[in-house]
Amino acid sequence: MTSETDPREAVLRGFCERYGEAPAWLARAPGRVNLIGEHTDYNDGFVLPMAIDRAVWIALRPRGDRHVQVHSLDFGESGEFSLAQLGGAEGGWIEYVRGMAWALEKKDRKLPGWEGVTAGDVPIGAGLSSSAAMELAVARAFCAVSGFEWNAPEMALLAQKAENGWVGVHCGVMDQMISAAGEDGHALLIDCRSLDTRPVPLPPGTSVVILDTATRRGLVDSAYNERRRDTAAAARALDVPALRDVSVRTLERRAGELEPETYRRARHVVTENERTLQAAGALERGDAAQVGRLMNQSHASLRDDYEVSRAELDAIVQLAQGHPGCHGARMTGAGFGGCAVALVESAAAPRFAAEVAAKYQARVGLEPKVYVCSASAGASLESAPAPQTAGTATGA
Fold first, then answer.
1. 345 CB neighbour count, 10 Å cutoff
2. What is the pLDDT of residues 340-368, one digit of tens each?
3. pLDDT of 296-312, one tens digit each?
4. pLDDT tens, 73-87?
């Protein structure tokens, strides 16, 4: 499937071609971009992501047994498993489906089987949470066939459990929570301890632009899990449940109790929590310039204290920050590759996208992808219409 293909229409057509009839439902869950609040979620902190207008879709119908069969248009392959014998993780995209089933079954949900076709336009491995989008779309699919009530925070926690306990990535809950509970036109301030949320509007006349560096990372094999261990160690040394409970002043006063590297890791998390709360307030005031300054500070902290950036990310952020139409920019996602995010004047967004992409390619030698995004709603389910065909009448 090409990036220009509408994944919603693709899964409808794919389902009809595969099964000879229309599906019963369409499940959808969006990817996300985090405006600010990076590596704070697994420290019980604050994050400020928005669900984007790119998503994973599943066209599906129920089965009469306890088997799940899914065909991926993106990967050109099918996966199938029995809910009665989930076995162990074997790798590949199907593990996000199997892992979600495992987490739901652990919650004493008796699941029936289903079959479907999936596709998405969330770039894979770019730090835009294609995995969370898949998990929440699968959760919506199981919700449809099982008839249980949708509860966004509960499903987000179960999707996190699937990623932690089945896939093996020790992520926090942010990605799953914004994919489950995003609000159209708004970012969402999330308290990752209580899962309380507050919708925050974007400033008028601004656009969020995602800059994909064309570099990729694998979270399971990266230093991500090391950073999680580092910050947990800092919290233990400071006798608090999580770094969310430490103020900047307290951390500075007790810096001598931590190893220098552990202190730097903790300093990023503690200051990032403060920046995130400040950014939410600035968004509500419509102060795009202040949000931009906080984004710039966030990138410097991620680069220098948390050390999760890389040369290509630094290059594209520097180019974005230097553009006159840009309020601020930072790397987004876990790091070690992937994307940056910029807050840009809407009128300047097309020129910003073209000029930053050209300069990045000239400097780094990689061709970036640039997406001007809007904030979308979280995971949804709809009764599926028949797909469009070339000969379908569109009006009287």
1. 18
2. 999 999 999 999 999 999 999 999 999 99
3. 999 999 999 999 999 99
4. 999 999 999 999 988
Residues 217/337, Cβ–Cβ less than 8 Å: yes
Residue-wise burial string across 322-344, b where 16 or more C-beta atoms lie within 10 A, e elsewhere = ebebbbbbbbbbbbbbbbbbbbb
Half-sphere exposure of 161 (CA within 13 A, CB side): 15
| Measured distance CA(170)–CA(41) in Å, rounded | 11
Query: What distance in Å separates the CA atoms of residue 88 and residue 354, rounded to the nearest whole number?
Result: 46
Instruction: Tell how strand 380-383 and strand 339-345 pair up.
Output: unpaired
pLDDT at 31 > cutoff 60: yes
Q: What is the pTM of this model?
A: 0.87
The helix-helix angle for 152-162 and 94-106 (nearest 10°) equals 120
Element holding 199 (H helix, E strand): strand 197-201
pLDDT score of 391 more than 60: no
Geometric angle at alpha carbon 239, from 304 and 154, rounded to 5°: 80
Q: Which residues fall within 8 angstroms of residue 55, CB to CB, at 6 or more apart?
A: 7, 28, 29, 30, 31, 120, 121, 122, 133, 137, 376
Alpha-carbon span 182 to 11, nearest angstrom: 23
Q: CA nearest 356: which of 321, 393, 307, 394? A: 321
| Active-site residue list | 175
Using the structure block, give the residue that is written with the tokens 């989930």: 86
Question: CA 156 to CA 175: how far, in whole Å?
Answer: 8
The C-alpha atoms of residue 65 and residue 77 are separated, in whole angstroms, by 22
Q: Does pLDDT of 396 surpass 50?
A: no
Euclidean distance between CA atoms 277 and 244, whole angstroms: 12
Q: Note whether 144 and 187 are within 8 A (CB).
A: no
- The Cα angle at residue 337 between residues 336 and 340, in degrees rounded to 5: 115
SS3 state of residue 85: strand
3-state secondary structure of 191: strand
**Domains along the chain?**
7-198 (3.30.230.10), 201-373 (3.30.70.890)
* Interatomic CA distance for residues 243 and 45, integer angstroms: 8
* CA–CA distance, 320 with 343 (Å, rounded to integer): 9
Say which residue the tokens 């300054």 belong to. 293
